[in-house]
Hints:
The protein is α+β, with helices and mostly antiparallel strands and 373 residues long. It has eleven helices and 13 strands.
Amino acid sequence: MTIDEAIDLLDNLVKQETEKELRRLEKCIIRGVLQGLTYKQIKENDPVAYGFSVCTLGRVVAYKLWQKLTKVLRKSEIIAQDEKVCAANLWDCIMRAVQQGILPPKIADPMLQKVMRMRYRITEHLVSTEYSDTYLAEDENLPDRPFCLVKRLKSQSEKTSKMFDREAKFLYSLGKHDRIPELLARFEEDGYFYLVYEFIEGQPISQELIEAQPWEEHQVIALLQDILEILVFVHEKNVIHRDIHPDNLIRRTSDGKIVLIDFGAVKEINTSENSIDNTRSHSGTNRDYIPPEQAICSARKCSDVYAVGIIGIQALTGMRPRQFKVDGVGNLIWREKAKVSSQLAAVLDKMVLYAFPDRYPSAVEALQAIQNL
């Protein structure tokens, strides 16, 4: 479920119980909380919140919002009468609503059954993010009408046009790799920008990383090796992915191998082109995998290594990244939460060091360390 779908779900519940919709500022706070932002960051990042003080957002607006949601979710029997909704458990409350069969209202999508470029017939809406919508489509020009993915960028601005061109350019420059979806086409239609990709049948590893269900060490090593093998290819092309998180790693059904998707945030090293904000969110969780230097727009190859290391620690511990504490210099405290050998722990520690000069400089060195285990 995307953040937009989660907001629609809550809005629909509130509307059913109170006959009033959530206010724009309330939706702004929900969006920020689901992205892992503080109230200060919400104020700084969302124009809707610009005119409010941090104190007002947290102690007045959010306080009343949590009271309202608590009342609605209790009445809907999604939470118990002695439970309260707050920022820390908001996502869990939404997931409990989904488990009870409560889903956001469906709105007819005009894209469905539309044929793009007299070739790609849209059959299903798969994912909606802040920047784009992704659809499943059939290629009617080929035998057996194979599936492909059609990605439409939401904005029609010049900035979006540059993002569109850059993603297409980098995917094309990478060439073909068995575990990177092939770019099949790029075009503009009705004022919107479209990219068409090879369809990878499988599921994101986010569905495998279940809280409180840690993996065995050999499973984690295999996962790290799988991801780093793809990253070696990317880094050798002098490119940084910058958006590695469990939703962008697909376990392919045919052979169980990991496929790396979504190159919308890629950055070519030493490029003079201005980078686009690399903290952009898809599922609301990828900020958990962003290292400190990338948060200030200074990503490098070891930033991708950091993200892979966080995924490895998440798998070993069965904990979400934001649940970990850090020591006095910013390094994660996690070993006591996992059953892990000192050798693998040492490799993971080096992958996620706060100080980027001390990490493995790229996927090449990180993969070698994993293989040496």
